[in-house]
Amino acid sequence: MPTSAPPSNRFERRRAETRGALIRAARQILAETGDTGASIQAIAERADVGFGSFYNHFESKTELFEAAVVDALEEFGQSFDERLAGIDDPAELVAAGFRLSARMADSHPELMQVLRRRGLGHLHSDNGLVRRALRDLEVGMASGRFTALDPAVALSALGGTLLSLVELRFARPDLDGDESAVNLAEMVLRMLGVPPDEAHEVARRPLPDAA
């Protein structure tokens, strides 16, 4: 779960813990089935909180599930920040992001199932993951690394391909996830205007070691 400054007193800590438990329960449900029809009672029981606590934090199940998706996307973005902090080349950031996403289907299956089921609806929202991707695309365009003309269109292409990769990892676990990610990363870099030979090389650079 994404980290934030700890609450300053006991009441706020308990309140934050309850909210976090509800969001975790919603994330689990989204990852397991994608079904948002679970009752508030069932969600509260899964979160191990009182039924009445729900309305202290959320006005509806829709609001809760929306918060759960945003929470997952922020965790996804933070994992990229931590792993890719030393990379300045926008093209390498894009390629590494694809390859890490493929691996996270195994290491963080719940998170990636949420992304798989609900990511498309957030492709142009203002969540942390989208802001990071748009930032990297704009840096690449400003520097001439990418030749795409419209960041929003480039984001659609990048995000749609990434979500397709996540779907592929779960639908076809028999395929080599790393190889699939490398090949897709190379294709996306070429689509963004990176010369073919360079796209091939960048997509295969060693990934940074895990912290």
UniProtKB/TrEMBL annotation:
DNA-binding stretch(es), residue numbering of this chain: 39-58
Regions annotated as coiled coil: none
Q: Which InterPro entries match?
A: Homeodomain-like_sf, HTH-type_TetR-like_transc_reg, HTH_TetR, Tet_transcr_reg_TetR-rel_C_sf, TetR_C_40
Q: Which domain of life is it from?
A: Bacteria
The answer to keyword DNA-binding applying to this record is yes
Q: Which Pfam families match?
A: TetR_C_40 (PF21306), TetR_N (PF00440)
Q: Which SUPFAM superfamilies has this protein been placed in?
A: Homeodomain-like, Tetracyclin repressor-like, C-terminal domain
Keyword check for DNA-binding, yes or no: yes
Per its UniProt record, what Gene3D superfamilies does this chain match? Tetracycline Repressor, domain 2
**HTH tetR-type domain boundaries:** 16-76
The protein's UniProt keywords, in alphabetical order, are:
DNA-binding
State the PANTHER family in the record.
HTH-TYPE TRANSCRIPTIONAL REGULATOR PKSA, HTH-TYPE TRANSCRIPTIONAL REGULATOR RUTR
What is the protein named? TetR/AcrR family transcriptional regulator
Organism lineage: Bacteria, Bacillati, Actinomycetota, Actinomycetes, Kitasatosporales
